[in-house]
């Protein structure tokens, strides 16, 4: 209701600031009797972790997760599952100089207008560090989905004007930008490195694909699966847009081109094309779900920028600290997590109407 | 929860099928003592109504709304406000020939897979006719917002490859495509007419702008204002994508280009640019909120299309009935309605944290 | 959220005032493919209807229900199910004399303080007439439960100081107070008749029993089944208390008396006693659920009573109109409805955690 | 939704098992800029703590709370507020002998039937230790309410057949049973001591009074204030009933006796009596809210009891461990907490409908 909870029956509630003592999450609605321990979650946390390479922030965090409840003797009990990740590399000094200054592109100003206060410690709650909780919860959701044959993969398809051309999912974790195109990945990394050297940052596009999703997920009218996914993904900081299937290109198409004709593929009803991106009328078709999100260039750049203070004085700001020159590589696991949370929820809701 | 309710404290619950007895809506959380009567709502219903021109469906519906509760002596009481719109021009015969056939691009197949049944009467609940309830509720939301100086305007900016070049809001209701560019509107209409003559349909893009929105609306983490708006808008049937501010173009920008620098505009803190589209860190900045949605070409086209039946036989379908060759003109008021519902909710939620 | 919606996945949203055009309900989450038509609902509406006897209000309403959506060709579709009941016997003149006077025991004063307005037409939204919507929704819930072997029965066990001594469920619908004790029913009716003649009213106690409820329903911590049932039932106007199993008597018992010892009843684990009333730790045991609610004497009495006006003048009020001298007979079906709504919801939620 | 969250805009989500690493809570919707630090919360935790006297469990826990987020520089920020309390005195050995045995009166059996597993460590999630999270959250709610002049006090009014006769709130914290009657407290304590010596336990009744609650809180139909309070309180383990104002006695009253007549108390509209217990039509009147809850005798008793195992063998159980012979003294702060959470939520929701 007040923004820190996601989901309807697989409900995720998160907390934590970038430089507070900890971030964490409670998941309500985890099915009982699922094998689960910290390593199941740590894998994705490590993918999201800063300090992985020059392409990401140099903050040093081990991001070790501790399960506090909901698991007993290696299995989920069905009760509230809580996880905590202690912050270690807190450097308040990095931020004290900007405590009264609104950083361009950041939420400093809007939080101040909303709450009448300022948590200047690296953005506080607005920091990307809150996504740790999403990834931790998402790791459990992904595990549940995998056991049902549903796999989610996300990958960078553009950094600036460099676009991927192939889709080789086996290479995603073998390049620093998490692209599915090794050759493009190389040029993307150059683009990022160039931005970093220029004290600048660069945007990009991430695509995600869900394979094995059964038909019938999603709810009519307001809780269409694409609407829930849009909500889930657009809640990730730094996203500017989302599209499904043909996306914005659909606007230039004719109905006769765009309609996916059904045919019998053996005993299975399938569409010949998948322009719809796996969702029709808000409900999954059983085809791959395909979506793309636009990622803005990181707001924290090491250049001097004009801005104002909370006392309404003009000033310039020089953001120090340790920042990602491109958000894409580290948002990839967050995208997967949010899709997983949405799908697990839809899957569980679907059970309520079937015998 | 199960999809027919939208909102957290200004809660809208809808019902109704395209060719059932009625569509309607209950709004829970309407503030008391607001002047309200049917004409306040009828205006937007008329904008959404079919049969307005050749550019829209020829179904004849008066779409007259009746308020059933929540209003007494011309004022809202604060209790549940219900509205009903009886369907009049039901033509089941238009649909009986397709009752076992899955129309390409429609939700027939996915509803069948979800629910194990088929309401073949023009899509049943999946019909665009459900948006009547949204527009009725949205009219009340817009009235509440207008009294606070918040105005929402939506307009078609592209039909196929024809793009608007100007933004003259005064002409929107004076052309059949609801464009803010009279000259482009003419060419858009030609595009639609051409599609209609070819038994085809065409997609488009709608832009919306909110003026006068105060800063501070939206909630951190999952209920970011852009996430809530994405959820709201992507729940409209036929949308393929949404973007805010610079949108997908942000992916190609550098941080130094994209960041909106703050400056003092007299006594007011403002950004020099509005690349963020009025929302920063998920919270409104006070600048205009700007977003765009991609509308797919109408799925119902009068061409013969290959498809299959629910008995898994290949067949061809010839959709008769009365359909819009381009959805944009009639989606425009729905877009406004969904934005209004989202903003009223955010406005009311914001009150809970202030004294 | 704002009070007119009940349930989590079987969600019921209601509207309507006592003397407005109609009352109604939308149910979101009705399972698809359930046989359903108006007569399934009418039966319980008739049990709740006024004008059944001298023991109830003389208002003449046929209370005919119309299904507006969610049912097609005699089966539920799984989409939002809406029902409407038009009010017929509206007599505003009965109320015009009291439009500025706060009736003792009624919600006139508190609604005025909450909303700053007054719907004086028989209590408006606060009228017991809103329970029509509950009973209509409950009839569907009861049907779903019956098909799973779960039966709910409620009956008056006390009117004033007259208490039932036997539990013969076959006689409940054969006496006007809906008691399960024919002999007591006679004396209860005398008590009611005596109150009516004295221009007075009388309270009572209703008991309800659920037979066939499976074990495992209810959720730990806040959504314990008894907590959800308490919420459901105490939301019925005029109730002053609720208790489960041994209820308030448990306060005087020792643990050694109160604990229900488990034993093997053939192959089944069962408790020897059912002091817990079928719910242990907030979760159903599989034994009969037993609860009782205290019903206050009807607030509308035909005696002259001291009170004040909204202009803060002292006055006396003489309530005319047509009122029930004892609420119990007509609350019985409402109690059943609210239990049914709670159990269907719990049953559906339980499915989300099982495979 | 799945039971571990309470509240609509002041939302409390809890986790933790009796003998797991920690219990904790996230509160979403805490108003910003409220002074808050650990000592504000510790006071009520200490009141609930075991080991206070012979009348309570001898488990040794310091129950020290740590605030993990949502507070910065001594003030709430408005973002998710998380608190954690590490468990220290975990003695799994106390429970290993009963790991397959269903304790009479406990949730062991029902959790097993619900989830298909058994967390035998002192009841796991079903332990009364989960109320720590409620009390921690309630302490913040109480602080918010106190600043608005709303005070909540709860006190034991009966232990077994010993009933309090006076209401002297100043003595509540000065006797071990938390009664408002020093003389009765002495006899209550004797009753508890007697039960303890007999390896038995005893039930009781707790009354709560809210002073200073403004009129207008609570929502019509399902979210009546008494319904929300019943839900809140009946979710506390071990409660068997709840009543408001005249409660079950109302069943024996006449309308002419029960109706609270309004009169002008100076410039203020007030009822001459408060039989309604401060809530009329589900909305607060502004008078004291008065309610009572029935507490069952503690299920854990040191006597040998017949029961069965999860393998369906008959057995006897001898519960060791450290248990409260009467739950009342330690439930008192939990009752206050749940009332506070309900009222803060109602207060915040009421703001959404006013300007």
Radius of gyration of chain A: 21 Å
Distance between the termini of chain A: 30 Å
* Secondary-structure arrangement, i.e. CATH architecture of chain A: 4-Layer Sandwich
As a percent range, the share of helical residues of chain A equals: 25-40%
Describe the global form of chain A. Answer: globular
In the residues of chain A, how many domains can be counted? Answer: 1
CATH level-4 homologous superfamily of chain A: Chorismate synthase AroC
Series of H and E elements of chain A? EEEHEEEEHHHEEHEHEHEEEEEEEH
Structural category of chain A: alpha+beta
Any low-confidence stretches of chain A, pLDDT <50, length ≥5?
A: none
Strand order of the largest sheet of chain A: 1-2-3-7-4
Supply the CATH class of chain A.
Alpha Beta
CATH fold-level assignment of chain A: Chorismate synthase, AroC fold
Helical region count of chain A? 8
Strand content of chain A: 15-25%
- Regarding quaternary structure, what we see is homotetramer
Number of strands of chain A: 18
Sheet of most strands of chain A: 5 strands, antiparallel
Gist?
4 copies of one chain form a homotetramer. Chain A is an alpha+beta fold. Helix content of chain A is 26%, strand content 24%.
List the helices and strands and how they pair.
Four copies of one chain form a homotetramer.
Chain A: E1 5-6, E2 11-16, E3 22-28, H1 38-48, E4 65-69, E5 71-72, E6 75-76, E7 81-86, H2 93-96, H3 108-115, H4 131-146, E8 151-159, E9 162-163, H5 182-197, E10 204-211, H6 225-234, E11 239-244, H7 255-258, E12 262-265, E13 268-271, E14 279-280, E15 283-284, E16 289-295, E17 304-308, E18 314-318, H8 328-351
Antiparallel strand pairs in A: 1-2, 2-3, 3-7, 4-7, 5-6, 8-9, 8-10, 10-16, 11-16, 12-13, 14-15, 17-18
Helix pairs in contact in A: 1-4, 1-8, 4-8, 6-8
């Amino acid at each position: 209701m007040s923004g820190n909870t996601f989901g309807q029956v697989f409900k995720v509630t998160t907390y934590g600031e970038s430089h507070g003592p900890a971030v964490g999450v409670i998941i309500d609605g985890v099915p009982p009797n699922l094998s689960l321990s910290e390593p199941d979650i740590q894998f994705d946390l490590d993918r999201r972790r800063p300090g992985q390479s020059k392409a990401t922030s140099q903050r040093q965090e081990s991001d070790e997760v501790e399960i506090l409840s909901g698991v007993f003797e290696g299995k989920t009990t069905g009760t509230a599952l809580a996880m905590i990740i202690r912050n270690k590399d807190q450097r308040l000094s990095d931020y004290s100089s900007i405590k009264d200054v609104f950083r361009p592109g950041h939420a400093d100003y809007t939080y101040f207008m909303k709450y009448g206060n300022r948590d200047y410690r690296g953005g506080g709650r607005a920091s990307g560090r809150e996504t740790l909780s999403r990834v931790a919860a998402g790791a459990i959701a992904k595990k549940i989905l995998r056991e049902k044959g549903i796999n989610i993969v996300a990958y960078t398809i553009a950094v600036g004007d460099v676009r991927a051309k192939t889709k080789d999912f086996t290479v995603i974790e073998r390049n620093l930008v998490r692209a599915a195109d090794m050759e493009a990945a190389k040029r993307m990394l150059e683009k990022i490195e160039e931005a970093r050297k220029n004290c600048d940052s660069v945007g990009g596009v991430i695509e995600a694909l869900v394979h094995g999703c059964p038909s019938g997920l999603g709810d009519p009218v307001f809780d269409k699966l694409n609407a829930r996914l849009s909500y889930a993904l657009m809640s990730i900081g730094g996203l500017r847009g989302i599209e499904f299937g043909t996306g914005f290109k659909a606007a230039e198409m004719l109905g006769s081109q765009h309609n996916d004709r059904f045919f019998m593929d053996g005993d299975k009803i399938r569409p010949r094309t998948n322009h719809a991106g796996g969702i029709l009328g808000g409900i999954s078709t059983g085809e791959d779900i395909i979506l793309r999100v636009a990622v803005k260039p990181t707001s924290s750049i090491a250049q001097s920028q004009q801005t104002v203070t909370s006392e309404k004085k003009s000033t310039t700001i020089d953001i120090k600290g340790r920042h990602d020159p491109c958000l894409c590589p580290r948002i990839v696991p967050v995208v997967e997590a949010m899709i997983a949370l949405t799908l697990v929820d839809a899957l569980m809701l679907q059970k309520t109407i079937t015998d």
